[in-house]
Amino acid sequence: MTTLDKYTSLRVGGPARKIINVSTEEEIIAAIEGAGDAPVLILGGGSNVLISDSGFEGTVIHIANNQAESEVDACSGATLTIGAGENWDDFVAATISRGFAGLETLSGIPGTVGAAPIQNIGAYGHEVSEFITRVRTYDRQAKAIKTFTNSECEFEYRTSHFKKHPGRYIILSVQFQIRSGEETTPITYAELATKLGIAVGEKAQVEATRTAVMELRAAKGMLLNSEDKDSWSAGSFFTNPIVSTEVALALPAGAPQWPLSDGRVKISAAWLIEHSGIDKGQSHGGARISTKHVLALTNSGGATAEEIAELAREVRAAVQNKFGIMLEPEVNFVGITL
Questions:
Q1: pTM metric for this prediction
Q2: Is 158 a catalytic residue?
Q3: Which pLDDT belongs to residue 74?
Q4: Catalytic residue among 231, 236, 290, 300
């Protein structure tokens, strides 16, 4: 019986009763319908999931469809339709090599194109929802193809309509609208601007921006590297909490805060963790806080899923005890809870 640690970036996960590899829309739908009433787990890159040590008592469908279609206009840019199984960073790199701009700040994020809209992935001042025009899905409840427009996806910070209805919609492909150009839009993220040697609000070369983003992610242990156990993670384990103005004002001076248009405030989860008594390199069994970034919980070698979950519980409890804020996981859990 195949174990699922081979399919996840955390390298944990017990046995699966059945695994099906699919590479076309027809195969995806056939696999889903063929599973009948058995539980179904959709896996792409496996970079944002924590699967229990007991595994999954159902059908695992590993999506690898990477078909691509493009319509390019010399003036307006391109409309690109990409299969859900395409590696996300390979796609970003391909757009840049073809002279397109927009996705460069999202370089280096692990996972697949199909996972991107579910989490509404984002980094360094941009979210993928800015570039998505359509998401084509298979609706398991209606047993039919359903295509969502951008507004119908209900994108918010690290969530979407798909995440709010787990298991119902299987993403088949994603359509993007991106522009032609060698320069970025104004860089709004201070850390990235500093890395590029420019002021916040200035533009930069797209290629240089991708390079800077990759270097920043590598320095934080956020680039997967088979030789570096400090990168055997699921990326940021927790999302930045969004709190009321009153809660934000009660935090110590120096806590990074980003006011939102609805009157609430986004707080840095990393800052909360660092100031709650949790240290880089802190461990529980084989699970360890990355030595490079406290938001990454890693498998230092031989960790179990339960050890990683227990370390996450320790982190969350420390933040709640210190600041009264409950961190929410960005990682998806299968057969395990916090």
A1: 0.93
A2: yes
A3: 64
A4: 236
